[in-house]
Amino acid sequence: MTHAPATPALERLLAAAVRRARLADATWALGRVALPAAMVLAAILLVAIRRFGAPPSALWICAAPLPAALLWAALRPHAIRRVARRLDAHFGLDDQLGAALEFAAPKPGCDPRTAAIITLVQQRADALAQTLDPAPAIPVKVPPPRAIDAIAPALVALAWFVPPTRAEVIEPSFGAVLLEPMAQASARAGLDLALAGPLRQSLRELTGPKDAPAAAAQEILDILDALERGELDRALALERLEELEREIAEADAELDSELREDPALLAEALEELGDALQEEELTTKAGDALDAGDGETAEAALAEAGEQAEADAAADQQMQRALAEAERKLAKQADERESSETAKQLDEAERRLRREEQKKPEDPEAAAEHERRLKQQKDKVEQLKRQHERELAAQKKVEELRRNAQQAAQSKAGSAERKRQLEKLGRGMKEASRTASSSQRMQGAQDAIEEAKTFVRRSGQSGAGEDKRREQFRKFDKAAKGEGKQDGKDGKGKGGKGKSTLLVEGEVGEGKAMGQMPGDGQGDGEGQGQDGQGQDGQGQQGQGQQGQGEGQGQDGQGDGEGEGQDGDGQGNGTNPSGASGSDGIGEGSQDPLGDPSKMAAGAKDVRVNARRGRGVSKAEILKDASQHGFATEPYRKTYEKYRDHAQSTLDSEAFPAAQRRLVKRYYQMIQGR
Amino acid sequence: MSTAITTADTQQDLQAMHDDLATLTREVQRVIVGQDKVIRSVVTCLLAGGHGLLEGVPGLGKTLLIRTLAGAVHLDFNRIQFTPDLMPADIVGTSMLLQTEGDAGGRPVLEYQPGPIFANIVLADEINRATPKTQSALLEAMAEGTVTAGGHTRKLPSPFLVLATQNPLEMEGTYPLPEAQLDRFLLKVHVEFPAEDELMNILDRTTGHDAATVKPVLDAARITQMRELVRAIPVTESVTRYVVRVLRATHPEDPRAPDMVKRYVRFGGSPRGAQAMLLAARIRCIMDRRMTPSIDDVRSVAGEALRHRVILNFEGEAEGIKIDDCLAKVLTAVPADK
User: Fold this and answer.
1) CA distance B113 to chain A (A)
2) Under 8 Å CB-to-CB from B195, ≥6 apart: which residues?
């Protein structure tokens, strides 16, 4: 019902009363509805955030009831007649204010006496309105508490203590070093920086030259950075990496078709050559450059050394010794490579091919299978032939280098022959280095892409996968607590030149392999001299981070060094008489993952450059069924083949005992039943 | 006449009316102890120009109240004691054959002899004891203020007010008033048993030597003026609408009617009920020194104005439902206009 304007005083009174009513409404709505609702919402959202991964910004939703209540109070219609009636009722005015309001619009043609009474009514109402205060009639009261008012904050308090989904598996024994990166990884879309660090380092090493591996390395770095910043989706990152992988594979195939010599063999030869050159001060620089794979610098350094040798007799002697040593080492490598493993494999493959060709399948299905095997065998023979040819070419190249070194050594200082042979040697070194490094860089790029893909895939497994990983950590932690305090045992040195090929603690022979994984280095070193009179059996006790054992024979051939990078390594000189020595091989860690509680004690990531050992290496790329078809060979047969291969490698290589047990244990676990 | 003058005069009139009513009430209260509500209702009937039905057990002073009121106003007063053998002519009068004297030569002529109805205030005592035929003799007088007898319609004196009484207990040998006649009464007033103090006061006054007497304080002209002023009292639309809604809610078919009405009421109040409510509310507001009636005024008179107009159905009668309870539900159910 609308009303005509009443007297000014009455209008003011009613307007004030309406404002007061809105204030009272707002107070009621806030206290009775909005605050309990906000707290209940907050409780729900807290649970959602802690248990279901809702974003923390969702908490703003719980503030929504407050403006809603205020809006309701501001917009709720207040009939002015009802407000007047409320005031009348409170002050006992028998509806005088309300009647005056209604009489504001007088009916036409009403009795003069009635009109006069209406005027009197309005005057009376106006006089009353000037003396009235709406506050007592419309009190603004905070609603009395109810059960829900206590329940709502209790719910919030309970929700506050709801444990987060992933925080519960954190155990103090892991320490901040382990957990912080994991937490940061979770915060940044599961990006594991601890794993990405070495990868990035290796990628940065690949960058520099303007070739395909460098471009790929830079591209991978960009992808990782974008992924870390959250600018790139995981799926998109994987897609780009796979595209990169295809490009590198094409570049590798192209390089492979261009290669004439076996890069691995050349690399070994260059390493030997570099070692020989490093033995003399004059040619150290050239040796170092060769070791670093920088053929151009090596060539320049060798030319410079040649010039110095021309000027100085002592330098000339150094040059001669270095060249003679190079010639000797290259010749030795050539001798070792005479009976090439590839040639044997080629013979074997050709024999199998012939045998396969002689087979006559009886039915079409067998024919198809025969055809497939035949093709496979032919491909293998072709591949081995190509490899054999490259090895022969590489041997020829090595022989050429050896001859250059020999002739240079035999020629007089300053002679044209010396200069020419040195130039040839330098050029050969440069070409061989380029060939070896290009292949190595290509392989490095492929490895980096594969590692990056693994990293990206793992970065997305922040849910169940991460829980599983934490569970593994827990188990390792438990195991480490029970087993990590064992005493070190004497290493059984064999004193040789074997070179480590595994990522383990402790060095073997002359190799400088260092453990990448932390663990208990428990190595004892014993010196052993070839003549049986070694007097330098020494043990140095490593405490905490490393254990070292060192032994020296008189002729230096029995040098050994054992080093445990982490853990409770101990080194003892166990043979003071010096009657025997050791190669310094430690046992390595019982557990390759080491003691998780010790990770904070100075762990450092070291990239290991594995070297070819004396054992036979075998590599196979496992493809899935869609690429390669289903397995056609029985598991037992495959298992035996691999186990025998591993056994022969173990027999021929110098492995730490703990790693030896690990390999054996692995094959026990995968044995068919 | 300018509005300012009219306003002042009106204010004086209202004040004078209030004072006169207060004087009248005080005068009646000199004789009648307590029963203030009944006195107010009877005075309301007097000012509204409506008739009143007083219901109560014997000895509560119903007749005395009406006699006292009649004595307090300077008006003709007649009392009719209704009995089963009372005839209509006994009330309205009859034509009698009278011997003329003088020039007429002593010829007998029919001359109308007015009955006791011809008075300003008529007390119809124990009205339900008369037969329906006799009761119906009052219909014309109460509705139209005229009496028709012997082929002639005669106007009753003004103001004319019938105040009837009836006894709700002694039902044997009584004739309940028909609905049409009940509807002629403005208010039906229940006379309650006096409270303890009131009863002591009654004993003091009535058992001593000095009997209180009343003197007239109002005359017919003044009452007529006051009746005019009552009808000039303005009523707000919301009050009028409330009256209408209350009346409609007494009908079982009305959507606002409470369940009790829907279940036990056969027929609700007539439009005369609404008129009665509004008129009575106007007079109440003047009595309370106000210038316009409120919802509360309507509520205070609704029971007296409607209780004799609402008829219970068989179920309501059988279950002993009180009409006053139904009306209380109606007043609760009907909201005031916003």
Assistant:
1) 42
2) B34
Opening angle at CA B233, ends B227 and B238, nearest 5: 135
CB contact under 8 A, B338 and A96: no
Residue type at A305 in one-letter notation: A
For residue B286, the chain A residue with the least C-alpha distance is A117
Six-digit token pair at B103?
């020039």
Q: How far is CA A515 from CA A7, A493, B336, in A?
A: 97, 18, 93
B232–A96 CB contact, under 8 Å: no
- What is the count of residue pairs from A and B with beta carbons less than 8 Å apart? 79
Q: Are the C-beta atoms of B62 and B165 separated by less than 8 Å?
A: yes
Please state the ipTM of this predicted complex: 0.84
Q: What is the DSSP string of B19-80?
A: HHHHHHHHHHHTTS-S-HHHHHHHHHHHHHT-EEEEE--TTSSHHHHHHHHHHHEES-EEEE
Beta bridge partners of B96: B111
CA pair distance A529, A526, nearest whole angstrom = 10
Tell me the CATH class for B235-338.
mainly alpha
Spell out the SS3 assignment of B250-306: CCCCCCCCCHHHHHHEEECCCHHHHHHHHHHHHHHHHHCCCCCCCHHHHHHHHHHHH
Can you give the pLDDT at residue A443? 78
B211: contact with A, CB 8 A cutoff? no
Q: In what order do the strands lie in the sheet with A548-551?
A: A538-540, A548-551, A560-563
Q: Is the dihedral of CA B219, B221, B227, B233 positive or negative?
A: negative
Q: Tell me if B323 sits within 8 A of B312, measured CB to CB.
A: yes
- Digit-coded pLDDT (tens) for B55-108: 888 888 888 888 888 889 988 889 999 988 999 888 988 888 877 766 656 677
Which residue, chain included where needed, has tokens 């060539």?
Answer: A299
Find tokens 């407000």 and name the residue. Answer: A83
Tokens 């107010």 sit at which residue? Answer: B40
> A198, A204, A239: which is closest to A605 by C-alpha?
A198
- For residue B234, the distance in angstroms to the closest alpha carbon of chain A comes to 6
Residue A665: burial class (beta carbons within 10 Å; 0-12, 13-18, 19+): exposed
Contact A82 B233 (CB under 8 A): no
Phi, psi values for residue A604, rounded to 5°? -140, 145
Helices B271-287 and B220-232 meet at what angle, rounded to 10?
A: 110
Where do the structural domains in chain B lie, given as residue ranges?
235-338
Residues of chain A neighbouring B295 (CB-CB closer than 8 A): 95
**Residue B291: burial class (beta carbons within 10 Å; 0-12, 13-18, 19+):** buried
Nearest 5°: the CA angle B50, B56, B57 is 155
CB-based contact A388:A347 (threshold 8 Å): no
Q: Provide the CB-side half-sphere exposure for A177 (13 A, CA).
A: 10
* Confidence at residue A606, expressed as pLDDT on a 0 to 100 scale: 64
Interface test with B, best of A3, A97, A120, A121 (most B CBs within 10 A): A120
| Closest listed residue to residue B245, CA positions, set B124, B336, B168, B166 | B336
Q: Mean pLDDT throughout A111-131? A: 87
> What secondary structure does DSSP assign to A414-455, as a single string?
T-HHHHHHHHHHHHHHHHHHHHHHHHHHHHHHHHHHHHHHHH
CB contact under 8 A, B291 and A112: no
Distance of CA A607 to CAs A517, A518, A561, A595, Å? 10, 13, 19, 20
Closest CA–CA distance from residue B4 to any residue of chain A (Å): 8
pLDDT value of residue A208: 73
pTM of the model: 0.50
Helical H runs in A337-415? 341-358, 364-410
* A115/B338 Cβ within 8 A: no
Which of B3, B13, B15, B292 is most worth mutating to test chain A (most A CB atoms within 10 A of its CB)? Answer: B292
CA distances from A432 to A267, A299, A417, A442, B332 (A): 8, 11, 22, 16, 111
DSSP-derived letter for residue A616 is P
